[in-house]
Amino acid sequence: MLRVGRMTEVRALCRRARAASRGMAVRDRAEKDAALRAIAAELRARERDLLAANARDVEDARGRGTSGAMLDRLALDPRRLAQMAEAVEQVAALDDPVGAVLSDTVRPNGLRVRRVRVPIGVVAFVYEARPNVTTDASALCLKAGNAVILRGGSDAARSNVVIAGAIADALDRTGLPRDAVQLLPAGDRDAVRELLQQTDTVDLAIPRGSEAFIRFVKEVSRVPVIAHASGVCHLFVDAGADVAMAVRIAHNGKLQRPGVCNALECLLVDASDAARLLPPIARDLIEGGCELRGCERTRQLVPEAKPAADDDWGREFLDRILAVRVVDGLDAALEHVARFGTGHTEAICTRDGSHADRWRREIDAACVVVNASTRFHDGGELGLGAEIGTATSKIHWRGVMGLEGLTTFQWIIDGEGQTRG
Amino acid sequence: MLRVGRMTEVRALCRRARAASRGMAVRDRAEKDAALRAIAAELRARERDLLAANARDVEDARGRGTSGAMLDRLALDPRRLAQMAEAVEQVAALDDPVGAVLSDTVRPNGLRVRRVRVPIGVVAFVYEARPNVTTDASALCLKAGNAVILRGGSDAARSNVVIAGAIADALDRTGLPRDAVQLLPAGDRDAVRELLQQTDTVDLAIPRGSEAFIRFVKEVSRVPVIAHASGVCHLFVDAGADVAMAVRIAHNGKLQRPGVCNALECLLVDASDAARLLPPIARDLIEGGCELRGCERTRQLVPEAKPAADDDWGREFLDRILAVRVVDGLDAALEHVARFGTGHTEAICTRDGSHADRWRREIDAACVVVNASTRFHDGGELGLGAEIGTATSKIHWRGVMGLEGLTTFQWIIDGEGQTRG
Q1: Which of the residues A100, A254, B53, B405 could staple to A264 if both were Cys, CB 3.0 to 4.6 A apart?
Q2: Which residues constitute the domain of residue B171?
Q3: Which sign, positive or negative, has the C-alpha torsion B379, B380, B383, B384?
Q4: In this predicted model, what pLDDT tens digit does every residue of A309-326 receive, in sequence order?
Q5: Does the pLDDT of residue B72 top 90, yes or no?
Q6: Cβ B362–A242 below 8 Å, yes or no?
Q7: B413 to A113: CB separation less than 8 angstroms, yes or no
Q8: Which chain B positions have a beta carbon within 8 Å of A383's beta carbon?
Q9: Residues B343 and B326 occupy one common structural domain
Q10: Which of A25, A224, A372 comes nearest B415 by C-beta?
């Protein structure tokens, strides 16, 4: 009986989201921006409640043995809360994607045919992350004219309840449907499963979290999924490359922030120039505190490197560890990436224009980088503003995903009574 | 043992498709167009074989009791075969979507950031349709730089084998990978099920066929699906509408070709003006051989109308039958469409600009039509050229889907050694 009741509840929540999405879709920019600013104000006004709830989340997480870095990401303080509110205001400042005209033609029979950006409808955002993701994702979904169903992780459960309450009240107060942002209770996989069956009311699922969690979502979902999976990013250093540039790009890709999805996980170096290129790159990384795991040819040039195991290729270390392989030229590098890459971000360092062209054309990844750090594949760096994640699916949107990725389009045909002959 | 062997075969076929897709992605327009012209020539050269195989398909279908109209759609003759070849040449004449630049900016740090159209990769096209769909879909997938796995219906099984053979040989002869078009044997649901599990090698599934078939595909697929489902299209005739225009649009929508997905299935008329509008529209449709199934108020104005059953709302008749309902103004019409529409094509006939605006803004469908026939939602009519179907999903592409819908995009970042601070 309890189970049936809970499933009915999930379905009712989704139906409310669908109704709210119809209400959201017709709002103009000013209304949506006013609501976002009200959300920021409401977050600031509830600082005490939110910090108290968060302190209990942190305490519980510590009780479950959660480690220092994870705990730090979960914990809020007045400065972090202020940043969350500011981020929501920054989304308000972004252009409204809804209504943008993607194509506009007049047919020989006088029909005007346009494709116009419209909201997707209801987005289910299922994630295991720190509280600021709750506010970022809500702000993006609302600005794009969608309703969102949030299902956050257990760690931030109490914080998310306060945040979602603040958002709903701000929506209410500014005349927008409060059900446009709803929170599904954390820690209940059956409820997630049920959510992902609601093809009538939920248009898109966006999972963000561990590999295992994303695999679970992809397996059970009957709703379309845009997955934000792992990034096994490579850098290929071509023969003849500028060694100083290669050192800089490798260092930045691996060490600037090793725990994120656009960090470098594997370095490939052309065998014909490896004796010149690899030792200085390796020395710099080792001095930066990085462990190298190399192939045989790597270890001849860099004795400090440990031997790489078979499963170090294609592995997301998310740590100060880098796999290093000497390969026989561009073709072998392309082959390695096709086999071990995850379609996230793939970089080349080269002075050869035709090799750069082949890299751009032959690499099948969300983001292809020539002579720059993989770390640039990021919403802020590419000019999108906030991001809801980085898609490694190939359908609908690829790579870093902001407001545009949260919209779809509609054909609009305007006539004067035309009929088809 | 047989089952294991067959499943292994499906997986091997998908891996060959993946390899072929890498070969296709790097071809320029001239190479792809030459292959398409060679395919057209090969189809013409095999006229005898193809007509003989098709005659056996038709014979078998007749033996299974297939009806006249279905049989007619299946049957090829020299004229239809010539049209199939011409359609492939028409795809060759379309612009190449690959390489189109969707955005191009230079960031403050000098990085150039572009989004560029690229092929999707491997498309699984599963359909139950006449043989020309095999050539149309293959031509579109190849032109967009993809590999395609075709799984046609049992009715056209022998015809499809000859067509797929002609295509593969033409690819071979023009230096393109012959595995870019492969045919999965018809009539084996387990093979389809296996195909739709190949998330490593298949990027997108496009089902086209009966409601039951599409439901099956959506249920079993772990690969992203763009569904081409039913069209329950409405026309709302607003108070004050031009009666002659309303008659023309309703007639064309319902009777020009009743068996297709963009045909009209339900007419809604504003109660406040129904006495003027509905009788002439109804008379014209009845004279055209259409059966009307109306609500109570409809039947008061049109005594010839039969009473509509509850399940006539939201029903795809695909026949000379139309549901008719008198509604209380625009809001009630929008409500009816939101409840019973399938997100395909929704039309309004109105002289009120603000009502037209609300229709464009509040209708959630792939195609919104103002003062024209729903029948215009078609690849040829909207200027796309050939189409692979009409998507009723909201993700990736909506409505009539041609070359652009068969592509995705890639971020390309070009730098001069920039690193992230």
Answers
A1: A254
A2: 2-229+396-414
A3: positive
A4: 999 999 999 999 999 999
A5: no
A6: no
A7: no
A8: 105, 107, 113
A9: yes
A10: A372
B387 in any annotated domain: no
Residue A391 domain-assigned (yes or no) = no
**Number of domains, chain A:** 2
> How confident is the model over B257-270, as a mean pLDDT?
95
d(CA B237, CA B267): 8
Q: Quote the pLDDT of residue A7.
A: 87
Band the pLDDT of B3: cuts 50, 70, 90. Answer: low
Residue A5: which pLDDT band, with cuts at 50, 70 and 90? Answer: confident
Same domain, B189 and B59: yes
B249 with B136, same domain: the answer is no
Tokens describing residue A15: 């139906």
pLDDT value of residue A290: 98
Residues B205 and B272 in one domain: no
B39 band by pLDDT with thresholds 50, 70 and 90: very high
CA distance A178 to chain B (A): 19
Contact state of A417 with B245 under an 8 Å Cβ cutoff: yes
Question: B129 or B380, which is more confident?
Answer: B380
Same domain, A247 and A361: yes
Query: Both tokens of residue B337?
Result: 């469409």
- Residue with tokens 């109490």, as numbered in its chain: A158
pLDDT of residue A401: 96
Secondary structure of chain B as H, E, C letters? CHHHHHHHHHHHHHHHHHHHHHHHHCCCHHHHHHHHHHHHHHHHHCHHHHHHHHHHHHHHHHHCCCCHHHHHHHCCCHHHHHHHHHHHHHHHHCCCCCCCEEEEEECCCCCEEEEEEEECCEEEEEECCCHHHHHHHHHHHHHCCCEEEEECCCCCHHHHHHHHHHHHHHHHHCCCCHHHEEECCCCCHHHHHHHCCCCCCCCEEEEECCHHHHHHHHHHCCCCECCECCCCEEEEECCCCCHHHHHHHHHHHHHCCCCCCCCEEEEEEEHHHHHHHHHHHHHHHHHCCCEEEECHHHHHHCCCCEECCHHHCCCCCCCCEEEEEEECHHHHHHHHHHHHCCCCEEEEECCCHHHHHHHHHHCCCCEEEEEECHHHCCHHHHCCCCCCEEECCCCCCCEEECCHHHEEEEEEEEEEEECCC
pLDDT-derived band of residue A209, with 50, 70 and 90 as boundaries?
confident
pLDDT in tens, A164-187: 999 999 999 999 999 999 999 888
Mean pLDDT of chain A: 95
The CATH code of the domain that includes A279 is 3.40.309.10
- Which stretch of A24-33, A64-73, A336-345 has the lowest confidence by average pLDDT? A64-73
Q: Which residues of B touch A360 (CB under 8 A)?
A: 412
Chains A–B, number of C-beta pairs less than 8 Å apart: 209
pLDDT of residue B293: 98
- Confirm whether A419 is domain-assigned: no
Q: Which of A244, A376, A416 sits opposite B371 (nearest CB)?
A: A416
Contact B412 A360 (CB under 8 A): yes
**Angstroms from B247 CA to nearest CA on chain A:** 10
The answer to whether residues B208 and B278 belong to one domain is: no
Same domain, B21 and B165: yes
Q: CA B341 to CA B346: how far, in whole Å?
A: 8
**Which of B25, B245, B410 minimises the CB distance to A368?**
B410
d(CA B282, CA B162): 48
Residues A238 and A204 in one domain: no
Contacts of B343 in chain A (CB under 8 A): none
Provide the whole-model pTM: 0.94
Confidence at residue A1, expressed as pLDDT on a 0 to 100 scale:
37
When pLDDT is cut at 50, 70 and 90, the band that residue A3 belongs to is low
> Is A421 within the bounds of a domain?
no
CATH number at residue A66: 3.40.605.10
